[in-house]
Design a protein that fits this description.
The protein is α/β, with parallel strands linked by helices. It is built from 10 helices and 6 strands; from the N terminus they run βαβαβαβαβαβααααα. The protein has a 6-stranded parallel β-sheet, sandwiched between helices. The radius of gyration is 18 Å and the shape is elongated. The model has no long low-confidence stretch (mean pLDDT 89).
Amino acid sequence: MIKVLVVEDMQVVRAGLVALLGGAFGIEVVGQAADAREALEVVGRASPDVALLDVDLPGMDGLALARELPVRVPACRTVMLTAMDRPGHVRRALDAGAAGYLLKSVSPKGLADAVRTVSAGGRVIEPRELADSLGSVTPLTAREAEALRLAASGADAREIAAELFLGLGTVRNRLSAAVGKLHARSLVDAIRIAERHGWI
């Protein structure tokens, strides 16, 4: 049996995933959680083979959780489940160690097959067009993307500096570099471009 942990903050969606996977041949749902904190409490007891993670979790997001779960349970592999169909999001998921990336429009059979493939050591990215477009590489450095991501959340330069333990000038330089690299007219325009491509 493939042991699965389901982490999804929307209760009705989580219940549907648990029911669907619980009824699939060779798959057993051994735990479920509404957020990363709960998932980290459950994972040690459940020792899942595969964790199915919503990308957009409250608090610690699914990508950060994908990095943390294998630290707790090294054999656990992760599959991201999301409504975001941008290549940049796929790249970030793979960089976080995820072995799968599925849109929430995936069929029940496709979901179960993906869990089996990932459990067996494979990698799944659906729809295939997302895998084909992974050549779309961000022009931003990780530090520029981090500053831009905080700006997108509404933080100003001073707040970003405090969050990242950086000088105000360093933050302004990173944001300015991001605007330049994205050929944006303004910081707001840079955020829009980066979000559209899934780079932040």
